[in-house]
Structures are given as C-alpha cells and as structure tokens.
Amino acid sequence: METKKKFFMSCCVAGKKYHDADEVWDKLKVGTLLQLQRDLDNRFDPDAVAVMFHDEETNEDYCLGYIPQEVNKHFSAILEMGWTDVFECRISRTRLDILPEAQIQMTIKIKRNVA
Fold first, then answer.
1. Which residues are registered as beta bridge partners of 3?
2. Percent of the chain residues past pLDDT 70, beyond the cut
3. Is 42 exposed, middle or buried (0-12, 13-18, 19+ CB in 10 A)?
4. Quick check: 4 and 114 in contact, CB under 8 A?
5. Mean pLDDT, to the nearest integer, of 101-115?
6. Angle at 24 between CA 18 and CA 26, to 5 degrees
7. Which pLDDT tens digit goes with each residue over 24-45?
8. Who's near 15: CB < 8 A, 6+ residues apart?
9. pLDDT for res 4
10. Strand order in the sheet with 49-55
11. Closest CA to 20 of 40, 44, 45, 50
12. Per-residue pLDDT reduced to its tens digit, 43-57
C-alpha cells in the first residue's frame, strides 16, 4: 500500500518565544519533521495543539510553540479522536530576522493510504 500526502495548510508556529525553539534552533532546517501533540492541560486555549521537535541525537522532545489558535480547532478534534498519524508536519521556512511569531513556518499535509 502506497502512502500519498495532500497539502492541507501552511502556518507559522505561534508562541515560539515562550518555548524551546531557541534551544534547538541550529537543528531546525527546511524539511525537518515535526509532531503535533494535543495539549489538554493548556490553560490559555482549550483546543491547544503543541508543535514538537524530537531531537534524535539526545532523544529529547522540545515544544517549539503551538498551532495558531485561530486554526487549531479541527486539529485538536482529530488528535483527540486518536488519529495522531493523520498529519505530516514539516518546517518550510526559518528566519531569525523577523518577528518571533513568523520565524518558523510549517507545511502540514494530510497522509492518505492508496491501495
């Protein structure tokens, strides 16, 4: 069975300056795979979805920030249903010379199985 991907959306990582992105900035490159993780304990947003980076060298996970609040409702519902492998999220741009809220852009695709 072949797996294909369909473009879903691009967005920037929200809240980058409050989380761990600066600790691993040198490892964040275009194409780097990220994980989306439902954050049920977030006191600021009931639909919060964290954007996580797994460092293979140290085997540690880092929270880079969040899916922007204005578009996270569908992500949170899908992840809460247990469909954690629906999306593929990769970095599509990094820039330190712009506002922190726009420094990490990601592209999110929907994975689908094709027989």
1. 113
2. 95
3. middle
4. yes
5. 87
6. 125
7. 999 999 999 999 999 999 999 9
8. 65, 66, 101
9. 84
10. 2-12, 104-114, 87-94, 33-38, 49-55, 60-66
11. 50
12. 999 999 999 999 999
What is the C-alpha to C-alpha distance for residues 80 and 56, in angstroms, rounded to an integer? 26
Residue count of the chain, please give it. 115
Q: What is the CATH code of the structural domain delimited by 2-114?
A: 3.30.70.2330
Domain residue extents for the chain: 2-114
In this model, does residue 109 exceed pLDDT 60? yes
**The three-state (H, E, C) secondary structure of the chain, written as one string:** CEEEEEEEEEEECECHHHCCHHHHHHHCCCCCEEEEEECCCCCCCCCCEEEEEEECCCCEEEEEEECCHHHCHHHHHHHHCCCCCCEEEEEEEECCCCCHHHCEEEEEEEEEEEC
